[in-house]
Amino acid sequence: MSRTQLELHIDFTVCEGRGLCTELLPEVLVRDDWGYPMGRGGRDVPVPGSLADAAQDAVDLCPVRALMLRRVSRA
Hints:
It comes from Sinomonas puerhi. The protein is of the alpha+beta class.
């Protein structure tokens, strides 16, 4: 049976490393040495349901639209 999970995608070709997303989602994002966001689990970061609203805020408030929230199916 597959289930749907929320995932945050970071587009590093657009990101300017302003860091707002890392402030809104410290549970899943950290900043690298240059200030760019890094997912604690890689580029496509699983987002727990309890953080869905904060993840949507990060997407909506990103000044360069470098974040995308999507639902993915997991086996």
